[in-house]
């Protein structure tokens, strides 16, 4: 349904049009009226008008003046002029202002209905054209917004070999993905992997930080290159594909290495992480999967270099011969309980290997195996079994994480030596282990499900062994000590805070208020409320 505006300074002329034309049959929902230019402008200010029928000669502003204003402010409105004059100047000016038609008064209502019908049809087609253009622009925006995603999925399929590494198959895949792709273009792949976050991140926070790394890589490495792409290939891993253009010489590789190194240093500073970037050689799309595999192998072999941009040419295959491990010496130090001496020598050995670049992943794994064998040998010599000493996660739950780098191996070895020496020389070490366990219990009092397994895991001991050791050193079981500490903590809160008893119970690790009150009275002889009242009275 449409709206029409009748504008004429003669009131009777407007009323005649209102009554004489069959507006309903034309699909007109509302007929608005005005008797001057100013009144017409007011109607336009709050109403959408599809067709305006207007007299030309009016005081205080002609119909031509009104049409000029409408063309500027409401160009979608279709205008038909009615006038008593047939002067060519009026008609010429009306046509210049894109008037739809020009009728002489007195007008035949049938002729006017025909003109209005054609004007409404023009308005309908114009509305459809505008809607089509808006729809087209919206889908064009969506197309552009999703273009990086289509490009990323296209390259992800290539590097993961979902698409065969054959030019024709890749061309067909580009067409299916609606990705513009030139098979002759060569790209330099840069494989970037986060080696370590220096802050503890939730899974959501890690995704956010990875997004920040990606945006930084787009700005620093991709720049304004329209064909560049970034592909997420794993947690904390991305593959940056940079068109090499005509410049594939050594100087271009050095410039890219410099840019990559600056990117890594910025990420280290602002995102609190350690990472490495591995820069491949320029290849075409059908060669990309194989080049990506080579960069991945570089990363797996790299256990010594951190926060570096490494060129593929730097990776010179098998490392040089490595100095034999001083296993016999380490065994004697373990037996003697010389933790610091052993760990200092291990650090010296690994640092020497790092500086000489004689260490890769396979050799670090052999060092790991020999180290574990030495520890197990000393435990056997002492008549102990490994499962009686170590919590399972220290030896078996994370070998991949331990062997990710020299740094992670050193951290792990320090824990193993600490626990092993404490067990081998328990007379002088038991107290420190029990103190660590006690401290952990005090820190976790609010945890309702705190178990002996959690406590044992914190000090890297077998739960049964820790239970026996705790009983021997303190004269009470772990559960009794935990209960005692919770009641003591509750007494402190009741005395020194205004928290409700229910909140005190939760803070002390009791979800059930009734159970807490019963246990508290059994221990102290008073209910929590009575205890608080007595403490405040005596205070």
Automatic annotation (TrEMBL):
<protein>
    <submittedName>
        <fullName>Response regulator containing CheY-like receiver domain and AraC-type DNA-binding domain</fullName>
    </submittedName>
</protein>
<dbReference type="InterPro" id="IPR018062">
    <property type="entry name" value="HTH_AraC-typ_CS"/>
</dbReference>
<feature type="modified residue" description="4-aspartylphosphate">
    <location>
        <position position="55"/>
    </location>
</feature>
<dbReference type="InterPro" id="IPR018060">
    <property type="entry name" value="HTH_AraC"/>
</dbReference>
<dbReference type="Pfam" id="PF12833">
    <property type="entry name" value="HTH_18"/>
</dbReference>
<dbReference type="InterPro" id="IPR001789">
    <property type="entry name" value="Sig_transdc_resp-reg_receiver"/>
</dbReference>
<dbReference type="InterPro" id="IPR009057">
    <property type="entry name" value="Homeodomain-like_sf"/>
</dbReference>
<feature type="domain" description="Response regulatory">
    <location>
        <begin position="3"/>
        <end position="120"/>
    </location>
</feature>
<keyword id="KW-0597">Phosphoprotein</keyword>
<dbReference type="InterPro" id="IPR020449">
    <property type="entry name" value="Tscrpt_reg_AraC-type_HTH"/>
</dbReference>
<dbReference type="GO" id="GO:0043565">
    <property type="term" value="F:sequence-specific DNA binding"/>
</dbReference>
<keyword id="KW-0238">DNA-binding</keyword>
<dbReference type="GO" id="GO:0003700">
    <property type="term" value="F:DNA-binding transcription factor activity"/>
</dbReference>
<keyword id="KW-0805">Transcription regulation</keyword>
<dbReference type="Pfam" id="PF00072">
    <property type="entry name" value="Response_reg"/>
</dbReference>
<keyword id="KW-0804">Transcription</keyword>
<dbReference type="InterPro" id="IPR011006">
    <property type="entry name" value="CheY-like_superfamily"/>
</dbReference>
<dbReference type="GO" id="GO:0000160">
    <property type="term" value="P:phosphorelay signal transduction system"/>
</dbReference>
<feature type="domain" description="HTH araC/xylS-type">
    <location>
        <begin position="435"/>
        <end position="534"/>
    </location>
</feature>
């Amino acid at each position: 349904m449409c709206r029409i505006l009748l504008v004429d300074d003669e009131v009777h002329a407007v009323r005649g049009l209102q009554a004489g034309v069959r507006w309903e049959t034309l699909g007109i929902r509302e007929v608005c009226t005005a008797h001057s230019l100013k009144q017409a402008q007011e109607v336009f200010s709050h109403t959408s008008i599809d067709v305006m029928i207007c007299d030309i000669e009016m005081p205080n502003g002609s119909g031509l003046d009104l049409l000029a204003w409408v063309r500027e402010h409401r160009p979608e409105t279709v205008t038909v002029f009615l006038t008593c004059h047939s002067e060519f100047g009026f008609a010429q000016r009306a046509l210049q202002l894109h008037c739809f038609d020009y009728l002489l008064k007195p007008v035949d209502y049938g002729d006017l209905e025909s003109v209005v019908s054609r004007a409404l049809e023009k308005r309908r087609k114009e509305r459809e054209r505008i809607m089509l253009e808006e729809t087209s622009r919206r889908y064009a925006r969506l197309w552009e917004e999703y273009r990086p995603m289509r490009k990323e999925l296209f390259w992800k399929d290539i590097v993961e070999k979902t698409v065969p590494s054959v030019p024709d198959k890749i061309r067909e895949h580009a067409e299916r993905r609606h990705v513009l792709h030139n098979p002759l273009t060569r790209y330099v792949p840069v494989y970037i992997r986060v080696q370590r976050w220096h802050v503890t991140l939730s899974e959501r926070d890690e995704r956010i930080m990875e997004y920040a790394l990606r945006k930084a890589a787009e700005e620093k490495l991709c720049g304004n290159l329209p064909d560049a792409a970034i592909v997420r290939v794993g947690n904390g891993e991305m593959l940056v594909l940079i068109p090499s253009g005509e410049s594939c010489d050594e100087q271009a590789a050095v410039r890219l290495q410099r840019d990559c190194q600056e990117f890594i240093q910025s990420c280290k500073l602002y995102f609190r992480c350690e990472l490495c970037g591995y820069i491949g050689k320029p290849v075409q799309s059908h060669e990309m999967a194989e080049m990506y595999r080579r960069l991945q192998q570089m990363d797996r072999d790299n256990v010594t270099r951190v926060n570096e941009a490494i060129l593929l040419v730097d990776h010179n295959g098998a490392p040089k011969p490595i100095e034999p491990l001083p296993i016999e010496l380490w065994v004697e130090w373990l037996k003697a309980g010389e933790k610091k001496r052993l760990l200092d020598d291990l650090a010296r050995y690994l640092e020497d290997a790092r500086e000489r670049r004689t260490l890769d992943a396979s050799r670090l794994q052999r060092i790991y195996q020999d180290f574990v064998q030495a520890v197990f040998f000393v435990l056997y010599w002492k008549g102990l079994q490994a499962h009686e000493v170590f919590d399972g996660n220290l030896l078996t739950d994370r070998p991949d994480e331990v062997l990710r780098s020299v740094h992670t191996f050193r951290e792990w070895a320090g824990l193993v030596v600490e626990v092993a020496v404490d067990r081998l020389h328990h007379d002088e070490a038991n107290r420190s282990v029990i103190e660590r366990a006690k401290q952990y219990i005090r820190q976790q009092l609010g945890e309702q499900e705190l178990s002996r397994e959690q406590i044992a895991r914190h000090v890297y001991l077998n739960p049964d062994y820790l239970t026996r050791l705790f009983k021997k050193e303190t004269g009470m079981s772990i559960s009794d000590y935990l209960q005692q500490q919770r009641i003591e903590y509750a007494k402190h809160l009741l005395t020194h805070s205004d928290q409700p008893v229910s909140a005190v119970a939760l803070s002390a690790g009791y979800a059930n208020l009734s159970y807490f009150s019963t246990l508290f009275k059994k221990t102290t002889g008073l209910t929590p409320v009575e205890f608080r009242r007595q403490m405040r009275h005596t205070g």
